[in-house]
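Notes from the 1:1 (GR / supervisor)

We went over the backlog. Supervisor wanted to see one worked example end to end before approving the batch request, so GR pasted a single chain during the call. The sequence is below; no edits were made to it. Supervisor asked that the structure be written out right there so they could see what the output format looks like.
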Amino acid sequence: MPVVAEGTPRCGRCSTPLPWVVDANDADFHAVVDESSIPVLVDVWAPWCGPC
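Structure output shown during the call:
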């Protein structure tokens, strides 16, 4: 899924740059989401399912 926003996301409290994570799968989901030190927004989708 392509990133639609431009620029670098930043923390609303301290303005620290935040990483964009565009794709995660079963192999790296734990490392990307469960071990993150910042909140993570997860968009779960399937190719056969239309956008919600």
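Supervisor's comment: The two ends are 14 Å apart (CA to CA).
Batch request approved.
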